[in-house]
Amino acid sequence: MKNIKLISTAILLILHIVSYTQDSKKQLFLHPGGLHTQADLDRMKAKVAEGAHPWIEGWNILIKDHLAQNSFVASPKENMNIRQVMSKDAHAAYLNAIRWYISGDESYAKCAIRIFNDYSSIVNQIPSGGRTDIVGLGGIGISELAIAAEIMRIYSGWKSVDFDRFKVMMINYFYPVCHDFLVNHNGACIDYYWANWDANNITALIAIGVLCDNQSIYDEGIEYFKYGAGAGSIKHAIYYIHEGNLGQWQESGRDQEHGQLGVGLLGTACQIAWNQGNDLFGYDNNRLLAGAEYTAKYNQMQEVPFKFYNNCQPANHKWPAINGRGRLDDRPVWEMLYNHYVIRQGLCAPNVQRMAELMRPEHGSKDHFGYGSLTFTLEESSSTPHPIPGKSEDLKATAGVGKVFLTWQPPSDFTSTGYVIQRAESIDGNYDTIGSWYDNTCNTYTDNSVSNGTKYYYKVAALNQSGIGEFSSVSSSKPQSITVLPSKWKKVDIGANITGSAEFADVAGSTFIVSGNGNKIGDTEDNVTYCYTKVSGDYIITCRISDIAGSLAKSGLMIRETLKSNSSAVTMTLGEVGGRFSRMGYRNSTGADMLSTLGNTYTWLPAWFRLERKGNTFTAYESSNSQTWFKVKSVEIPMFSSYYIGLAVVSQDKRSENKTTFDNFTLDAVKE
Q1: Of 349, 329, 327, nearest to 338 (Cα)?
Q2: What's the mean pLDDT in 429-439?
Q3: Which CATH number fits domain 35-379: 2.40.50.100, 1.10.3720.10, 3.60.21.10, 1.50.10.100?
């Protein structure tokens, strides 16, 4: 098998050598022409020398980056299968290259060349094996090495023999990794992997093609961007265009960190192609811009439309994910997009523009080179900061048990980069700052440093680069201690060897805190702590799960015919796979196996669930906000007219306990 792979690789390389000979006549690659052209480098250098804004601010933070130091030592190995290490080394090479060109200090050029030469003299095989995702995400570091080397090809101190050896390494050992993933996807179904997995490999092919003057590799990346079957090609990555030219990103229902990652990766591919005379930015009516506008808008705490998305995992995405929403600290990709679409092309992109302005000057990142305020700014007029943000409105303080939940509306100009939270124990008292942040647009906060029974008064103000805005009106709340369960409510541990508890507080729309160390909801019988009441007739139960303590925990709503472990039952739970799978379970009869239907597979706390019984029809619902509900499934189960309804928790690990907070709880008879 190994010999077959080696033969296949050899054939592939021969084809590329032949292709290079033929294709060299097709296109004369511009050098330097990776992420930056000679004109780009000269502009950076001149603007920093002038002390012009925002270039100088970008420069001043770049030179403080620990990877931008000329003492950096890379860590290559023969089988370079640790992508994070490769990416770190590539960042150091890139930052040293930029620092050399702008400052003229050759010690930084020598550091970058040392990194490249260490790699090309040590790496001697196609990376594989071990606990690694090199085949899939390795394109991040591979593309970054190629991009950094493309800058340093203009340095006279990089010997031609060393540069040639580096290019051989890129084609012989790193290109096959990216090619293999895009062709085979590790044997998975075509839409199993998320968009960013394809996107980083597309970018790598384009970058390698430019660096190595290899037309066929370059074209392979361009073609996959346009027509590839995987989730990262442009029409799959941005798979639906909503009204207002908002392009829903394929990972929007997963989390916002990966959504922004994918936008940046494809943006990098477009920038390299643009520098070679190929307009991927404008492809399919500026489709990338539509995806960037959608992603930027949602991460400025504005609402966006959402179309159900599914793949073979399955994903079952029904709403845009809140996980990572609003983070400004990790995805410096917006200056590149803003300067191309708005400054160069003159297009309207208000959300992309605002995101670039909010993050200015851009910092670095582990998956993106960043520092775009230095490297991509085209016009000084584009650097004007926003004024102090407006007033935050509709602050609501909601009491919990040992905590207070705060929510508010951002200023209408959406120019905040963070907030300041202040608290006092009287409305006219001295307000102390209890929380503040500068790099997140999130408009929620949970105050966990409170005493039950004490009334607290809160106000919030938005901030940005220009200062702190006006504080909101005051909102107050009094957290409460837990008490015994309401009358007619009980706790039972169903199954053997379980210790559980259940408590109640009349806050946050009725709050139950249920704990237990049972190990199973499912199969032919349950091992679960159950907080319940007995009812007759048709009922609907609704709650919000606001907190789950336990790494393997599963928690949710449950309806049971009896309190025996093998009773027929219906559940709607959250747990599994990092605690994010929502799932409806149903045991059709006593002792039967529990069947299940997945709900949203990226359900992040807080999560809203609902179970409804109408006759013998049981229906599960889920929601991200309690306003819009999505049906998971309806099932028919013969069940006594008198039954048990309530809240269930398991730790799925006898050594630990699951402690879950259910709030906003309601139990209502179903009206005809």
Answers
A1: 349
A2: 96
A3: 1.50.10.100
CATH classification for the domain delimited by 393-477, as one of 2.60.120.10, 2.60.40.10, 2.60.120.260, 1.10.150.130: 2.60.40.10
Residue 306 is predicted with a pLDDT of: 98
Pairing of strands 569-575, 554-560: antiparallel
Instruction: Kindly state the average pLDDT of the residues 235-240.
Output: 98
The interaxial angle of helices 256-275 and 215-227, nearest 10 deg, is 130
Q: What residue spans define the domains of the chain? A: 35-379, 393-477, 490-669
Does residue 12 surpass a pLDDT of 60? Answer: no
Distance from CA of residue 261 to its chain's centroid?
Answer: 7
**pTM of structure:** 0.94
Q: What CATH number labels 490-669?
A: 2.60.120.200
* pLDDT tens by residue, 511-533: 999 999 999 999 999 999 999 99
Q: Are 326 and 26 in contact (CB under 8 A)?
A: no
Environment class of 490 (CB within 10 Å of its CB; exposed 0-12, middle 13-18, buried 19+) = middle
Q: Are 550 and 659 in contact (CB under 8 A)?
A: yes
Question: What is the DSSP-derived secondary structure letter of residue 552?
Answer: T
Query: What are the tens digits of pLDDT across the range 583-599?
Result: 999 999 999 999 999 99
Ramachandran quadrant class, 642 (left: phi over 0; alpha: psi -120 to 50; beta: rest) = beta
Question: What would the two tokens of residue 130 be?
Answer: 């071990």
